[in-house]
Each structure stands twice: as structure tokens, then as C-alpha cells.
Design brief:
Elements (H helix, E strand, L loop, with lengths): L18 H7 L7 E3 L1 H9 L10 E4 L4 H7 L4 E6 L2 E4 L12 E6 L4 E8 L6 E3 L7 E3 H4 E3 L5 E3 L1 H9 L4 H10 L5 H14 L10
Parallel strand pairs: 2-6
Antiparallel strand pairs: 1-2, 3-4, 3-5, 5-6, 7-8, 9-10
């Protein structure tokens, strides 16, 4: 399906898939991907702690076309600086864009938020500061159902920048279950990226 033939759904019209539904659709695609954002924290905890308006997952940029083809029931649009724009069917992702929403045109809603991360197959790299780099095997985990997700320390590092109400909820909910390694990583990264952050006193 060519997204150039369609207008995007309204930005607020999300009927996101559950992570299990995404994993089922990606069965057979042997490439790096993992759930990020609030859903990643809930996968780590083993329970859903709040409603999620979207479903974010990350991939490597070189795999964009393969994921787009595998999820061909969706039309993908680039999201940058508040603008949602179509991408030609076989076009590479624009170099300055790292976020792509997948639209279910028939049902006029968004299903997934696909992010490009700029690490390598062996290393995860924090996109806001490439000085933060960790072996991928330590940062991508799986729940009991086999769904891959980003480690809580990395998810909370992303959330620390904005500290919206849902980010504060996610931090407080995740804090009691953080492993000593996750706590140590998050302390180190917050001191580097956000010195004096309020969460540091609780870690």
C-alpha cells in the first residue's frame, strides 16, 4: 500500500496494538527490535500499570525497509517537529527523522510508533548523547512471552528529560523493582545527562 495515496488519520486517533500483537506480526523477521516507552516498563514489571495511548518500538535504521515491508498492512508516515508526512513506498527514511507512525488506513487510526535508534547490532547507543553506549545484550531483555523490551534504566533516562505526569508515574511504579544494576546505570546516566535531577535523591 502506498501511503502517498492516503491522508494520515488525525494525530489523536490512536488504537495502538498490544505488544503481543506486534510480536505476532513480526514473527519470522530475524532483525533487532524492542518495545520502548511506558509499555517497556510494564513488560519488565509483568503487568500493565496504566493505559498506553501508543505503542513505541525501536529498530536500527538499516532495517527500516524490512520492517515496513513486514508490516505492509500499515502505511508509514514520518513524524518530525509536529508534522506528519507520507513517505514514498520504496523511499529510505529521511536522514533527519527518527520517528515513524504506522497508520491503519482502513480503520483511520494509528497502530505503532516506530523509532530509529543509532546503535549497532552489538551495541545500544542513547540517541540524545552517543557517549552513553552499552552492549545490546545488557539493554534488550525479554518478558516471559518472549517480547523484547528496553531495560528500565534506559527507558527512564529518556523519560527524565520531560518528567510529565505519566513519566513520574512510571518512575515511581518502576523504582521498587529496579535491579541494583539498573539503579546504578540510571544514577550514572542522570548525573551525566541531567545533573541535579530530582530522581537522583530517590535512587
Amino acid at each position: 500500500m502506498n501511503s502517498l495515496l492516503h491522508s494520515p488519520p488525525p494525530q489523536e486517533c490512536w488504537q495502538a496494538w498490544h505488544p503481543q500483537q506486534l510480536m505476532e506480526r513480526l514473527t519470522g523477521l530475524d532483525l533487532t527490535w524492542y518495545v520502548v516507552g511506558g509499555w517497556a516498563l510494564d513488560l519488565s514489571l509483568g503487568r500493565q500499570t496504566r493505559a498506553h495511548e501508543d505503542l513505541e518500538f525501536a529498530i536500527l535504521p538499516e532495517d527500516f525497509s524490512a520492517f515496513r515491508q513486514h508490516l505492509k498492512e500499515l502505511s508509514f508516515f514520518s513524524v518530525h517537529a509536529g508534522e506528519v508526512d507520507p513517505i514514498a513506498q520504496h523511499a529510505a527514511p529521511p536522514a533527519h527523522v527518527s520517528q515513524f507512525w504506522g497508520a491503519d488506513i482502513a480503520n483511520s487510526c494509528w497502530r505503532v510508533d516506530m523509532m530509529l535508534e543509532h546503535g549497532t547490532p552489538s551495541d545500544w547507543v542513547y540517541k540524545r548523547d552517543t557517549a552513553i553506549s552499552v552492549p545490546r545484550a545488557a539493554m534488550v531483555r525479554r518478558n516471559q512471552a518472549g517480547i523484547p523490551y528496553l531495560a528500565p534504566s534506559a527507558v527512564l533516562l529518556f523519560k527524565a528529560k520531560y518528567c510529565r505526569a505519566k513519566d513520574e508515574h512510571d518512575f515511581q511504579t518502576s523504582l521498587p523493582s529496579l535491579s541494583s544494576q539498573d539503579r546504578s546505570n540510571l544514577r550514572f546516566w542522570l548525573n551525566h545527562a541531567h545533573p541535579g535531577h530530582a530522581w537522583l535523591a530517590l535512587l
